[in-house]
Amino acid sequence: MGALDDGRFDLELVDGVSLEVGFELETLPIEEAVKVLLQGLGEDINREGLRKTPARVAKALSEGTRGLVLRGQEKCLIERWNADSNRCYRQKAKDIVQGALFPEVGLDDGVGHAGGVGGLVIVRDLDLFSYCESCLLPFQVKCHVGYVPSGQRVVGLSKLSRVADVFAKRLQDPQRLADEVCSALNHGIKPAGVAVVLQCLHINFPNLELGYLDSNHQEWVKASVCSGEGLFESTKAAIWSDFLSLLKFRGINVEKTCTRDSTVPCWCPSQSSSASTPCKIEPVHQMVAAVTSILKSLGEDPLRKELQGSADRYVRWLKNFEKAESELMLNGFVCGKMDPLQPNCSKEEMHLELNLAFWSLCEHHLLPFHGVMHIGYFCTKGTNPIARSILESIVHFYGFKLQVQERLTRQVSETVSSLLGGDVIVVVEASHSCMVSRGIEKLGSNTATMALLGRFSFDDAAKNMFLQSIQNTSTS
């Protein structure tokens, strides 16, 4: 079977030397660097929720970048063989597929292509994730792989996914990822042609200097890229039309794709034109040094062209969740901008604010999660409801710190309840990066939490009315 089956990689050097490397990294240096990052955010690393965070982060990073196998003595051996490659290694893809090449007789004579001689084979909708080399945050990938068999043999379909996963588990750029997967399959399978199309989603972090989240903010940056070799080398080849037509059967439209020869700006939001404005957040030298040490521990070269500035950009992003600054924002903005509402036993009207956007950082893995909050409450008939901007600032305050969704839901509900007199319901819907880029790797999953205070905890009619309002908004 494949080289991944026993948790090890075989590397092939150009001079014929093979090197077998285990991909379990020594995580202690990474754990120590994560502690520096937590302390740089003003956090207590001995707090109950953070005690195991360094170990969790180290494990997630080692799993999520296990395609980076340059460590210790192996690195000097591997670097000898390809001075022109900025990766310094090549995963031996044929070791993954060698046990899964099966004879399949096709048309030896006659007109047309079929079976092992040349029928087009496509595996669609392979869900992957990778880490952006520009900002070090994970991004999601929908991968479509096609090949035209040759030599009267076909490959086990699961191996296409395995090869793609090997190259995704690295600090990557979408186009390079597509090119590496395509090249590896071409060398490993020896087909008549191979094509790879990737649809990538990168979290689009908002401008936090506004003090609130713009409701029109686009949550994701999208990029579609393709790569082809053999029959697919030219994007104008007729076989590309067949490939894309088979994708369209699944409702997949990837007409606007970039290729390896395309000149496009960096897709990462951290280097987009909107991110080029001066940032008020200054990175801390110790934190940048800690991220740099993490890159080295993962087997990367921080001086590699594509990684220059990545540690700095990651720290600037991380500093948005600094504990002390968030507390000042709440005290200065919310409490100074509103008069507390007096409780009143004759509350009759339900008011609700739906789809309040929020962003937060999972304190267990230091990975972002984001989504929307829905808040409902009762107040006296005829009185003005609390301004949406105030609720936005409360959500903003509790969101921009190290959090877990359950606590975030409770804190927002209790704060709103203290202002409005007790009858409050809060529903939070969020997508978690830690559900995608580690462990079970469940792309597309979403988590919902709910807090019920006062009347909403026993009045089913009121609760159901609020929940129905959310549903109506989602379907409209």
What integer is the average pLDDT? 79
Number of DSSP helical runs: 14
How is the main sheet built?
5 strands, mixed
Query: What general form does the structure show?
Result: globular
Termini separation: 50 Å
The number of distinct β-strands equals: 14
Could you state the order of secondary-structure elements as H and E?
EEHHHHEHEEEHEHEEHHHHEEHEHEEH
How large is the share of residues in beta strands?
A: 15-25%
Lateral strand order in the biggest sheet = 7-4-5-8-9
- Which class best fits the helix and strand makeup? alpha+beta
| Radius of gyration using CA atoms only | 26 Å
Unreliable stretches: 1-23, 70-91, 332-338, 340-345
Helix content: 25-40%
What report would you give on this structure?
The protein has 476 residues and is an alpha+beta fold. The chain is built from 14 helices and 14 strands. The chain has helices spanning 28-40, 53-64, 72-78, 93-97, 115-118, 157-168, 174-189, 238-248, 285-297, 310-318, 323-333, 388-399, 405-420, 460-475, and strands at residues 8-12, 18-22, 101-103, 121-132, 138-148, 153-155, 171-172, 193-203, 220-230, 347-362, 367-380, 402-403, 424-432, 447-453. The strands form four sheets. The protein has a five-stranded mixed beta sheet. Helix 1 runs antiparallel to helix 9 (285-297). The two termini are 50 Å apart.
Can you summarize this structure?
This protein is α+β, with helices and mostly antiparallel strands. Helix content is 33%, strand content 23%. Strands 7-4-5-8-9 form a 5-stranded mixed β-sheet. A 5-stranded mixed β-sheet has the order 12-10-11-13-14, with helices on both faces.
